[in-house]
Amino acid sequence: MDRSDAPALGDAPTLSAADATLVDDLLDGSHRALARVITKIENRTPGYRAIVSALHEHTGGADIVGVTGSPGAGKSTLVDKLAAAYRDRGDTVGVIAVDPSSPYTGGALLGDRIRMGSNVGDMDVFFRSMSARGQLGGLSTATADAVKALDAFGKDVVILETVGAGQNEVDVVRTADTVAVLVQPGSGDDVQTLKAGILEIGDVFVVNKADMDGAQRTVAELEEMVHRREGGTTGRDAVRGGSPRLRSRGRVRERRVRRARTGIRRVVDAGGVRDRRKHR
Amino acid sequence: MSAEQQERAVRCLVAKVGLDGHDRGAHVIARAFRDAGFEVVYSGLHRAPDDIVQAAVQEDVDVLGISILSGAHNTLVPKVIEGLEEYDAFDDTLVLVGGIIPDEDEADLKELGVAEVFGPGTPMEETIEFIRNNVPERA
Fold first, then answer.
1. Which of A48, A254, B99, B124 is buried deepest, with most CB atoms within 10 A?
2. Could you tell me which of A189, A144, A137, A200 has the C-alpha nearest to residue A165?
């Protein structure tokens, strides 16, 4: 593999001329460049790290909202409506929707786009489907860097939709500022709400399909669970601008610091830094 | 080091354009592409040409497969291709058309820049092989 691409302590990875143009085009608002940058990040095309590090200084402006829940809970539909609501307020929106990849062929059917009915034709909603490419935490390895690309592009809100989650797909909490967990009525008894995992990471709980039997009961169970920690929240404003739990910007900052640490650790684990030391 | 290996996947958009409500074929194709190891984005039904262009650009697909059974291909396909050109995305996207396309229209579509037209009864392997052999090289 290309050694020159591995970042060493102290020096920034160098950007090729073509990639520098790509970064400039992205920052100038080219959708094509943004799409291509995300592809390079996904494919780990040699040089992608230099691109991400060039974009880094332009990030930090976007609110990152994670949406997770079981398959068929209505994540994509909610994301579509959320995106439309943000657009009504004049915000620009980026969406990354992750779907699972086949353990047999590596292929994937990315079907989240079908639900984006409210935003078709609106180029200020940049929607990107992503395969999990074998990752088990609900996101792909490339997701966090792709969010950075959307942030640097200037999106006000980036919505991150996970793979249909079970109990343990909790990676989204390491990438998003705010996490919404969708729960369907009839998802089990109140012991489920005592369990560790996905129900722990929600800042906002959405009981979807509320016309189904048992919706009130599910709300009550979740409320009880939430009361055991801190106050719950309602509505769109809870997400954009901070829920009570997140209202202190300190908490968001804390998450962002934690996220940076996760990112650094990933680079180190990938061998870049350690290997470079070996080369000395 | 496996975490840093380059991972190139063929990305396809399977698109239904216009007032054509028959998507069984598109579903079968999408599934076959998935089984071939491709990453397949499905557009859903009744999309306008602009929606397809938006999807192709944002998803940065290598292959755009348009399924049309309504007979409106001579109207819809040129609009999609124009849109791709507008975003500078036509040159490195392989555009395929599948469905009911009369022979006399096939030549016109190819003239426009459609790489191949696949009619009813085309073996799945043929389409997949064609994509593998013709997927655009990218930097």
1. A48
2. A137
User: pLDDT tens per residue, chain B (139 residues)?
Assistant: 344 677 789 999 999 999 988 889 999 999 999 999 999 999 999 999 999 999 999 999 999 999 999 999 999 999 999 999 999 999 999 999 999 999 999 999 999 999 999 999 999 999 999 999 999 887 5
The rounded radius of gyration (Å) of the Cα atoms in chain B is: 14
Q: Is the pTM of this model over 0.95?
A: no
DSSP A134: T
Handedness of CA A76, A81, A85, A87 (dihedral sign): positive
Distances in whole angstroms, Cα of residue B114 to Cα of each of B65, B82, B95, B107: 10, 12, 5, 9
Cα A24 to Cα A93: distance, rounded to the nearest angstrom: 20
Within an 8 Å CB–CB cutoff, is residue B119 touching chain A? no
**A102 to chain B nearest CA, in Å?**
8
Look at A113 and B89 and tell me if their CB atoms are within 8 Å: no
Name every chain A residue with its beta carbon within 8 A of the beta carbon of B55.
113, 127
